[in-house]
């Protein structure tokens, strides 16, 4: 039997889909034949023929890129058991977990707290975890819900661990189990289950009441900071202790501490911190990217974990071993100089059957995802991703010795201050992170003051935040831009697909919501394509592989693909009105059997492609 310590923590398995590849090439051949047929008979036809040719040319280009995207289908297998045999629990690295929420009406607090509870309950030493919740809505409701949830967590987390619960978002867990116990369940379990279900129902009721405006909290005390403020115009609110605790006390708001794991025990609860960054109407806030950068800095001062997991508030943990799966791909010296981040696929619960609006991105995750896993790795999708802090701080794989990039790392170093801003405490923590020093000193009053400062909207002026470090500004799809900047440096990423799926999230289920979301995505993607961040520059001047460029081009030009599709769809109507035709006539077709085969198959194929890929 092989020594457990010599077995790999993850394996890359290349899947051969030979039949698929043959079919893909036949389709390509048919498309090319159609193009050739059109070119050869250009003189006998008019405008409709030309438009049809241009549309089909773009479909063919799209198909070539699709073949490239799916050429090396790769699956990663991760082995958390081997990891636990190799390192003891206290040797596992700390992880900071970020949850973003922006609007307590569109993103109900009950959903956000379920995400937070599922994160607090993951199977990982709790003294290695800190959960930071960013509230861009500066909503007392969100804060109230979190504070109530933190009390419930004291029962929920031990319960999940004791009974090895799989789905650790209570709304999902209790809706799945509908009070049906199996004959193997102990009476102790049944008792605790019933107690927990009652507690969760009470928690939900409290939050529902609060949403219904019968606000149960006392605005003169803990919640006074939220009175008389507007969500887009609120000062740096200084707020003391909320529920418990000492050393993180008096830390801003932003941030407020809900729960601190004071004893540093591995089976207690992780830290839970609420942050609402400063907002002013005249200062750009850079949406989610801005929130992520504040989270990065505040967490840098408080816990400075070398890894950061981020999730949208509506994506709960569905597999309690996610951290261990991610660590299997990120730990070890080889991975450290190769893999920048581990991305889990986005999978949705209760989505519409057959994804009629295409916003569950099945093609992207199921097919293209495994395809690019075989090139440089998946794109960063904004949620369900574990990043290395030092990569977010701008390190490239070749900066093996951090000193080469930031000589004289230290709080007074001019380059560090220009890059990371004028907070000496923060630049010191960034220096520690870049050098791999994960030891944290207790927070002093100076660092508490610094945590106030790094949450202010003027902090980033004149620094490299959003440009060279942190989440990148300049696109509403900040995730794609940030991932692209990482791949440009030559980093790889890993597509982590454990079973059961790591996270489950919500996708819009109505047409208007889907259209708003897709308009935002299309705009954000074009903002990248038409800017100096266009991936072609990454291939020409950086370390982005050519096929990776093709993939990014395919993603970024997604919004433009509607133009040939719409034109092609309008051609039959145009042909009827003008009494012309754009498809070869039957009499033309029989001239050669090749043409016959080509044209008919292409028509079928085109309809198939339009239905399967563009609808
Ligand atoms: O000013 C803002 C705007 C948004 N968010 C948060 O960002 C996340 C994503 O925003 P959402 O409006 O839900 O966008 P989606 O289109 O659903 O999100 C997808 O697309 C985004 C942009 O590409 C990515 O950031 C997300 O991770 C990805 O799930 C949510 O948690 C929001 O609360 C903020 O924190 N501040
Ligand atoms: Mn969303």
TrEMBL record:
The active site is at 136, 479. Mn(2+) binds at residues 288, 312. Keywords: Cell wall biogenesis/degradation, Glycosyltransferase, Membrane, Transferase, Transmembrane, Transmembrane helix. It is a multi-pass membrane protein. InterPro entries: Cellulose_synth, Nucleotide-diphossugar_trans. It comes from the Eukaryota. One of its GO terms (biological process) is cell wall organization. It is found in: Endomembrane system. The chain crosses the membrane at residues 22-40, 46-65. Coiled coil: none annotated. GO terms for cellular component: endomembrane system; membrane. UDP-alpha-D-glucose binds at residues 107, 136. GO terms for molecular function: cellulose synthase (UDP-forming) activity. Its main location: membrane. This is Glycosyltransferase 2-like domain-containing protein. It comes from Malus baccata (Siberian crab apple). The lineage of its organism: Eukaryota, Viridiplantae, Streptophyta, Embryophyta, Tracheophyta.
């Amino acid at each position: 039997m092989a020594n457990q310590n010599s077995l790999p923590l993850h394996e890359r398995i290349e899947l051969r889909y030979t039949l698929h590849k043959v079919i893909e090439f036949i389709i390509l051949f048919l498309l090319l034949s159609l193009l050739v047929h059109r070119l050869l008979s250009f003189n006998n036809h008019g405008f409709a023929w030309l438009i049809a040719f241009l549309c089909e040319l773009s479909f063919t280009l799209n198909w070539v890129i699709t073949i490239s995207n799916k050429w090396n289908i790769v699956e990663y297998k991760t082995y958390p058991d081997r990891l636990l045999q190799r390192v003891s629990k206290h040797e596992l690295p700390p992880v900071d977990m970020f949850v973003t929420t922006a609007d307590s009406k569109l993103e109900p607090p009950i959903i956000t707290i379920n995400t937070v509870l599922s994160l607090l309950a993951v199977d990982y030493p709790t003294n290695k975890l800190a959960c930071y919740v960013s509230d861009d809505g500066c909503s007392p409701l969100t804060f109230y819900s979190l504070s109530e949830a933190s009390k419930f967590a004291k029962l929920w987390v031990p319960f999940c661990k004791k009974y090895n619960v799989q789905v650790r978002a209570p709304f999902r867990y209790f809706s799945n189990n509908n009070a049906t116990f199996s004959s193997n369940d102990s009476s102790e379990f049944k008792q605790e289950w019933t107690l927990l279900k009652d507690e969760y129902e009470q928690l939900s009721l409290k939050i529902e009441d609060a949403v219904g405006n019968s606000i149960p909290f006392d605005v003169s005390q803990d919640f006074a900071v939220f009175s008389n403020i507007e969500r887009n115009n609120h000062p740096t609110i200084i707020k003391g202790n909320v529920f418990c605790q000492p050393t993180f006390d008096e830390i801003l708001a932003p941030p407020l501490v809900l729960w601190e794991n004071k004893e540093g025990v591995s089976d207690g609860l992780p830290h839970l911190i609420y942050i609402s960054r400063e907002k002013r109407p005249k200062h750009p806030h850079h949406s989610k990217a801005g929130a992520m950068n504040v989270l990065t800095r505040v967490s840098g001062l408080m816990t400075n974990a070398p890894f950061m997991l981020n999730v949208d508030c509506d994506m709960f943990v569905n597999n309690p071993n996610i951290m261990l799966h991610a660590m299997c791909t990120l730990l070890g010296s080889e991975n450290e100089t190769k893999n920048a981040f581990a991305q889990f696929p986005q999978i949705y619960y209760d989505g519409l059957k057959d994804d009629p609006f295409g916003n569950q991105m099945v093609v992207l995750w199921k097919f293209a995802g495994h395809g690019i896993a075989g090139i440089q790795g998946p794109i960063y999708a904004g949620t369900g991703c574990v990043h290395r802090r030092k990569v977010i701080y701008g390190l490239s794989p070749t900066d093996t010795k951090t000193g080469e990039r930031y000589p004289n790392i230290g709080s007074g170093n001019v380059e560090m201050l220009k890059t990371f801003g004028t907070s000496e405490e923060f630049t010191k923590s960034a220096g520690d992170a870049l050098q791999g020093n994960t030891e944290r000193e207790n927070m002093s009053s100076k660092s508490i003051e610094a945590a106030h400062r790094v949450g202010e909207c003027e902090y980033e002026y004149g620094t490299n935040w959003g440009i060279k470090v942190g989440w990148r500004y300049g696109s509403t799809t900040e995730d794609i831009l940030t991932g692209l900047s990482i791949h440009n440096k030559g980093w790889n990423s890993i597509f982590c697909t454990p079973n059961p799926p790591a996270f489950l999230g919500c996708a819009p289920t109505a047409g208007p919501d889907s259209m708003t979301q897709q308009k935002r995505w299309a705009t954000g993607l074009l903002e990248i394509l038409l800017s100096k961040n266009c991936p072609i520059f990454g291939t020409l001047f950086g370390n982005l592989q050519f096929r990776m460029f093709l993939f990014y081009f395919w993603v970024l030009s997604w919004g433009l693909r509607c133009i040939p599709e719409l034109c092609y769809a309008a051609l039959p109507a145009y042909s009827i009105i003008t009494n012309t035709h754009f498809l070869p006539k039957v009499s033309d077709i029989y001239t050669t059997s090749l043409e016959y085969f080509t044209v008919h198959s292409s028509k079928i194929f085109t309809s198939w492609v339009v239905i399967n890929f563009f609808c």
